[in-house]
Design brief:
Number of strands of chain B: 11
Distance between the termini of chain B: 14 Å
Shape of chain B: extended
Number of strands of chain A: 0
Structural class of chain B: alpha+beta
CATH topology of one domain in chain B: Immunoglobulin-like
Largest interface: A-B, 80 and 69 residues
Oligomer: heterodimer
Largest sheet of chain B: 7 strands, antiparallel
Radius of gyration of chain A: 19 Å
CATH architecture of the largest domain in chain A: Orthogonal Bundle
Radius of gyration of chain B: 26 Å
Largest sheet of chain A: none
CATH class of the largest domain in chain A: Mainly Alpha
Number of helices of chain B: 4
CATH class of one domain in chain B: Mainly Beta
Order of helices and strands of chain A: HHHHHHHHH
Chain lengths: 203, 220
């Protein structure tokens, strides 16, 4: 997981009474949990929650849904901790769970939107850049809205490749999708974003 | 009325040339830069999670030194048998193992949909199966197909009129496994396939289920 932060770089203080959390490796924390020290799991949560939050928020376009998806993903990870075969690669294993959980939530979002459609025209207006004589300052907002209009699998592939900066081999390992299929998804995502953002970058 | 017909077929992923990849990488870099801004979890995220973890955790991971909560299969059994009794009990154990095999098989199948299990196995799959969706409604002006395979995207898969009056069809490449889908008639009316197994989501909306078999079979 190249984009996962160095645990020692997390600037936030460690709360709680658990002294094992700060300097321990993922494998040590997992061993502690499996031995019955449940609070050691908070070290893993603290270490990975922000990185996972970025992916989930970009993937789902909603902080509320992202929070729900991550609560569920971390609980799945906790319950399945014994099946993490390589505890030193816990970050990658957790990320696989987060990706799957986000897929589930994205699918629910799609259904919700189909049954209770949002004002499509308003969304398209929001994505469309301003006119030439009206400078557009919210480029980031346009990008996020355009991203949210891509099909789920294209959005996921684009985020993993270009935001999380994973290699295609890593993406394939995490998603269970072949490298050629992932390349195609990224390509289609780029094509889609180009169409949706036409004008934002003036071509 | 809708139905699904399985057609044998294979589609391989297209190639994607390196020049175009490089062009896309430049464009993607401009787009991705703003998306890489860090996001913080909600301040209460850890506490809410750890509350749940503590509630479940004690039973999942017993503390060292705690009294052993040995399950029956960990318990050591010593059984002495006469040869005749041994044959009878061996037959019984064989039956139990056979029955257990069914249960374990179901469980493994169910686990394969869970993130944890997918994370570990999930081989790359380039091969898909072509499934033909058919919907019959002589009064329909348009029929669309939505499902998990097209991200529940309206307009992604439109059915076309076939030769017979009122018959609409579309062929879709599906990966092996379970898929959910529904039809949207005239851009508005949501209809689950009346001939397929039903599934309801969190909002009580009915969809249909198709299972595409790895051995080249579809089930509805």
């Amino acid at each position: 997981m190249p984009s996962l932060p160095d645990p020692s770089c997390d600037p936030r203080p460690v709360s709680g009474s658990h002294s094992l959390v700060t300097g321990s490796s993922d494998a040590e924390l997992i061993d502690a949990v499996l031995a019955g020290d449940i609070d050691a799991f908070s070290g893993l949560v603290r270490r990975y929650q922000d990185t996972c939050t970025r992916f989930a928020v970009r993937m789902l376009g909603s902080r509320v849904d992202a929070d729900d998806a991550l609560q569920s993903a971390f609980m799945r990870a906790f319950r399945g901790l014994r099946s993490c075969k390589d505890p030193n690669r816990f970050g990658g294993w957790l990320y696989q769970i987060v990706i799957n959980e986000c897929r589930t939530y994205a699918s629910r979002q799609r259904r919700r939107e189909l049954r209770f459609p949002p004002a499509t025209e308003a969304i398209e207006r929001a994505v469309a850049p301003g006119s030439d004589d009206e400078p557009d300052r919210d480029v980031g907002g346009h990008i996020e809205r355009a991203l949210s209009m891509l099909p789920t699998e294209q959005r996921e592939a684009f985020l993993l490749k270009h935001v999380e900066e994973l290699s295609y081999d890593e993406m394939s390992e995490m998603t269970g999708v072949s490298v050629p299929a992932l390349k195609m998804r990224v390509k289609r995502a780029c094509d889609g974003l180009r169409d949706l953002l036409e004008g934002v970058y003036h071509g | 009325m809708g139905c699904v017909i399985y057609l044998k077929g294979f589609i391989m992923a297209d190639s994607y040339d390196e020049t175009r990849q490089a062009e896309d990488a430049v464009f993607a870099e401009r787009v991705a830069a703003s998306l890489r801004a860090p996001e913080r979890a909600h301040p209460s995220f850890e506490k809410r999670l750890m509350d749940k973890v503590r509630m479940e955790g004690r039973s999942l991971y017993a503390a060292a030194g705690a009294s052993p909560n040995a399950s029956w299969w960990r318990t050591e059994w010593i059984i002495r048998l006469s040869p005749r009794g041994g044959v009878a009990i061996a037959a019984g154990i064989g039956a139990i193992i056979a029955l257990s095999g069914v249960a374990v098989g179901s469980r493994i199948s169910a686990r394969s949909h869970s993130p944890a299990a997918t994370a570990q196995a999930a081989p790359a799959r380039d091969t898909v199966e072509l499934v033909r969706f058919v919907f019959v409604d002589s009064g329909a002006a348009s029929v669309a197909l939505v499902g998990d395979f097209n991200g529940w995207t309206r307009g992604a898969t439109e059915l076309k009129r076939s030769g017979a009056p009122g018959v609409w069809t579309a062929s879709v490449a599906l990966t092996p496994g379970r898929h959910e889908y529904a039809f949207i008639i005239n851009g508005k009316r949501w209809v689950a396939d009346p001939l397929a197994v039903k599934s309801s989501d969190d909002f009580g909306t009915e969809s249909s289920v198709i299972r595409v078999g790895t051995a080249g079979k579809s089930e509805t």
